Amino acid sequence: MDSRDKQSRRRLSQIDKNTSFHQAFHHAVDGIVEVLRRERNMRYHVVMAIFVLAIGLYLGLGRSDWIWITIAFFIVIMSEFVNTMVEAIVDLAVGHHFHPLAKVAKDVAAGAVLVAATTAVVIGLLIFQPYLFQLLGW
Ligand SMILES: Nc1ncnc2c1ncn2[C@@H]1O[C@H](COP(=O)(O)OP(=O)(O)OP(=O)(O)O)[C@@H](O)[C@H]1O
């Protein structure tokens, strides 16, 4: 086992506080990887963001459009992070037992993702509508 393996094993079983920025940064990256691994929807959001980025570059969107697209992407991604946190905490608390409050917590977290994604779609429609109408000759 080389020193990098030892470091990553220590990171996986660490329960005490981070002692350096480097250590904290690695845990934060682990969190991002975990959301991507666990949440199928998160992978769809990333694919969608790459698609919107490509179309936006092709159309030559302006600075304020890019700001709105960034905000839309941010709220969706953040809601997915919160959803994943809630799921993990609920599963930790109740395991494989049905609990009405576990249902409330998970359904509300899923609802937050739905609201965020719908808001992002509305922002996207408002930004791309003039280009779409022009394309369709309306
Ligand atoms: N322990 C539980 N007690 C009560 N209801 C639960 C419990 N676990 C899950 N549920 C119900 O099952 C649904 C699906 O749960 P799950 O853990 O798969 O989350 P999810 O919403 O599918 O996550 P994803 O964001 O991956 O779609 C929840 O929205 C909730 O209604």
UniProtKB/TrEMBL annotation:
<keyword id="KW-1208">Phospholipid metabolism</keyword>
<keyword id="KW-0067">ATP-binding</keyword>
<feature type="transmembrane region" description="Helical">
    <location>
        <begin position="67"/>
        <end position="90"/>
    </location>
</feature>
<keyword id="KW-1003">Cell membrane</keyword>
<feature type="transmembrane region" description="Helical">
    <location>
        <begin position="111"/>
        <end position="132"/>
    </location>
</feature>
<comment type="similarity">
    <text>Belongs to the bacterial diacylglycerol kinase family.</text>
</comment>
<feature type="binding site">
    <location>
        <position position="80"/>
    </location>
    <ligand>
        <name>substrate</name>
    </ligand>
</feature>
<feature type="transmembrane region" description="Helical">
    <location>
        <begin position="44"/>
        <end position="61"/>
    </location>
</feature>
<dbReference type="Pfam" id="PF01219">
    <property type="entry name" value="DAGK_prokar"/>
</dbReference>
<dbReference type="InterPro" id="IPR033717">
    <property type="entry name" value="UDPK"/>
</dbReference>
<keyword id="KW-0444">Lipid biosynthesis</keyword>
<dbReference type="GO" id="GO:0016301">
    <property type="term" value="F:kinase activity"/>
</dbReference>
<keyword id="KW-0547">Nucleotide-binding</keyword>
<keyword id="KW-1133">Transmembrane helix</keyword>
<keyword id="KW-0418">Kinase</keyword>
<feature type="binding site">
    <location>
        <position position="39"/>
    </location>
    <ligand>
        <name>a divalent metal cation</name>
    </ligand>
</feature>
<dbReference type="GO" id="GO:0046872">
    <property type="term" value="F:metal ion binding"/>
</dbReference>
<dbReference type="GO" id="GO:0005886">
    <property type="term" value="C:plasma membrane"/>
</dbReference>
<keyword id="KW-0460">Magnesium</keyword>
<keyword id="KW-0472">Membrane</keyword>
<keyword id="KW-0808">Transferase</keyword>
<keyword id="KW-0443">Lipid metabolism</keyword>
<keyword id="KW-0479">Metal-binding</keyword>
<feature type="binding site">
    <location>
        <begin position="106"/>
        <end position="107"/>
    </location>
    <ligand>
        <name>ATP</name>
    </ligand>
</feature>
<dbReference type="GO" id="GO:0008654">
    <property type="term" value="P:phospholipid biosynthetic process"/>
</dbReference>
<dbReference type="InterPro" id="IPR000829">
    <property type="entry name" value="DAGK"/>
</dbReference>
<feature type="binding site">
    <location>
        <position position="87"/>
    </location>
    <ligand>
        <name>ATP</name>
    </ligand>
</feature>
<feature type="active site" description="Proton acceptor">
    <location>
        <position position="80"/>
    </location>
</feature>
<protein>
    <submittedName>
        <fullName>Diacylglycerol kinase</fullName>
    </submittedName>
</protein>
<feature type="binding site">
    <location>
        <position position="87"/>
    </location>
    <ligand>
        <name>a divalent metal cation</name>
    </ligand>
</feature>
<keyword id="KW-0594">Phospholipid biosynthesis</keyword>
<dbReference type="InterPro" id="IPR036945">
    <property type="entry name" value="DAGK_sf"/>
</dbReference>
<keyword id="KW-0812">Transmembrane</keyword>
<dbReference type="GO" id="GO:0005524">
    <property type="term" value="F:ATP binding"/>
</dbReference>
<feature type="binding site">
    <location>
        <position position="39"/>
    </location>
    <ligand>
        <name>ATP</name>
    </ligand>
</feature>
